[in-house]
């Protein structure tokens, strides 16, 4: 029995076929369960005509027989308990991987009584499956380490772009779509590496998928994939999801704050986005710490003021708003830069801006929508208008300006 299952594992047979093989050998329903007893896969002889595995409530995890399962106690037979437990007898063999319970092989009593020989078969099958799960865990850790290394190179800009593209594809990172960075600062006295798994779980619950992360000395940084050209609405939806899951993040980090970068559309933009989230996190912490979900794009003016002695920050600030508009105008022959300039000069009045530009008011409104889509700049907000005005001023004063007329 053991030799046959081991050979099947070595030949690449998956869990479903292994469980089906054990079920066929025993002539009973067999279910492979996770540590919390959720079903991974199951099989039963066709004669039983089952459309689901025999039920096993999670309450049995607290029973003495199941609690003591481990390397020294490989299986137990659970008696029926129609009120609080299973409706029939179950033979439960434990799967152990790297010293911890990794799941259970559940044999249901149906059609015939369980026999002592069934326990031997179930224990042998559980041992083979345990080896398989341990190997999968090691492989997953190796993949995770590789992904962490590639992510670190991507965010820090320590490899050429062709290498990053090749390596990212190998670890499942799609660099042809839009992204944002999430910075989860960790409270003093807590370990960022020790908080990593809890942060990933909290972020995954909030966003629907766990993000790959980079651990820094004082924070965990996550990479979240968006659409190739993220819209303002998509970014606002992301912020709302993070806000709803903030309590779980606080439990993991001890800090009630998540810093969200602007949309990153090019590989070369990741190092700057990482630096900006770090900078904004420092500013938010210095100004009082707790700030919920903090968008880098909404603190651009404050960053410029706080870091007025750093020309590089000012130039990046202007590029954030004017660069995408300039590139759009160059590729499409549009007038987004001039529209924004005239709109600001007209006191944020659509009618006055349209008159200055010689176009219809709806044309101005459409262009303002495009400006928001490309930059995240909400031209209905006073702080956003101030940021845009400062961007034009910085561009005009910069020695190596952005080339915006």
What does this entry look like structurally?
It contains 15 helices and 10 strands. It is an alpha+beta fold and 405 residues long. It has 3 domains: 2-140, Beta-Lactamase (2-Layer Sandwich), CATH 3.30.450.40; 176-305, 2-Layer Sandwich (Alpha-Beta Plaits), CATH 3.30.70.270; 308-397, PucR C-terminal helix-turn-helix domain (Arc Repressor Mutant, subunit A, Orthogonal Bundle), CATH 1.10.10. Strand 1 and strand 2 form a beta hairpin. The model is unreliable at 399-405 (pLDDT under 50).
Protein traits:
405 residues, alpha+beta, Beta-Lactamase, Alpha-Beta Plaits, Arc Repressor Mutant, subunit A, 3 domains, 5-stranded mixed beta sheet, 15 helices, 10 strands, 14% strand
Radius of gyration computed on alpha carbons: 29 Å
Shape: elongated
How are the strands of the largest sheet arranged? 2-1-5-4-3
> How many independent structural domains?
3
| Secondary structural class | alpha+beta
**Unreliable segments of 5+ consecutive residues:** 399-405
* CATH hierarchy class name of the largest domain: Alpha Beta
N to C succession of SSEs: HHEEHEEEHHEHEEHHEHEHHHHHH
CATH topology-level name of the largest domain? Beta-Lactamase
So, CATH architecture of the largest domain?
Answer: 2-Layer Sandwich
**Percent strand:** 5-15%
Number of strands: 10
Count of discrete alpha- or pi-helical segments spanning 4 or more residues:
15
Helix content: 40-55%
- On the 0 to 100 scale, the average pLDDT is 86
| Biggest beta sheet summary | 5 strands, antiparallel
What is the assigned CATH homologous superfamily of the largest domain? Answer: GAF domain
Alpha-carbon distance between the termini?
79 Å
């Amino acid at each position: 029995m053991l030799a046959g299952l081991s050979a099947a594992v070595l030949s690449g047979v998956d869990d479903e076929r292994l469980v089906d093989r054990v079920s066929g050998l025993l002539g009973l329903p067999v279910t492979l369960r996770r540590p919390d007893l959720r079903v991974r896969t199951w099989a039963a002889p066709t004669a039983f005509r089952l459309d689901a595995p025999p039920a096993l409530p999670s309450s049995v995890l607290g029973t003495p027989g199941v609690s003591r399962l481990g390397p020294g106690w490989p299986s137990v037979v659970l008696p029926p308990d129609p009120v609080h437990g299973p409706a029939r007898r179950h033979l439960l063999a434990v799967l152990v991987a790297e010293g911890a319970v990794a799941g259970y092989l559940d044999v249901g009593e149906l059609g015939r009584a369980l026999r002592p020989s069934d326990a031997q078969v179930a224990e042998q099958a559980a041992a083979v499956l345990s080896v398989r799960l341990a190997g999968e865990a090691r492989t997953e850790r190796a993949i995770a380490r590789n992904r962490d290394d590639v992510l670190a190179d991507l965010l820090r800009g320590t490899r050429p772009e062709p290498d990053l593209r090749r390596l990212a594809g190998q670890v499942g990172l799609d660099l042809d779509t839009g992204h944002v960075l999430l910075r989860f600062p960790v409270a003093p006295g807590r370990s960022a590496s020790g908080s990593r798994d809890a942060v990933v779980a909290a972020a995954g619950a909030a966003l629907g998928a766990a993000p790959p992360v980079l651990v820094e000395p004082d924070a965990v940084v996550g990479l979240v994939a968006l659409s190739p050209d993220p819209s303002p609405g998509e970014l606002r939806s992301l912020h709302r999801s993070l806000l709803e899951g903030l309590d779980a993040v606080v439990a993991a980090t001890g800090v009630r704050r998540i810093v969200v970068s602007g949309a990153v559309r090019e590989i070369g933009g990741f190092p700057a986005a990482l630096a900006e989230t770090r900078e904004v996190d420092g500013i938010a912490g210095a100004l009082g710490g707790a700030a919920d979900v903090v968008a880098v794009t909404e603190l651009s003016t404050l960053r410029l003021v706080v870091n007025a002695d750093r020309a590089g920050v000012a130039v990046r600030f202007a590029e954030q708003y004017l660069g995408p508009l300039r590139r759009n105008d160059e590729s499409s022959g549009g007038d987004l830069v001039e529209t924004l300039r005239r709109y600001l000069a007209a006191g944020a009045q659509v009618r006055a801006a349209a008159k200055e530009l010689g176009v219809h008011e709806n044309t101005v409104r459409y262009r303002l929508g495009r400006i928001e889509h490309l930059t995240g700049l909400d031209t209905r907000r006073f702080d956003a208008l101030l940021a845009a005005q400062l961007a034009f001023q910085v561009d005009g004063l910069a020695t190596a300006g952005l080339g915006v007329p």
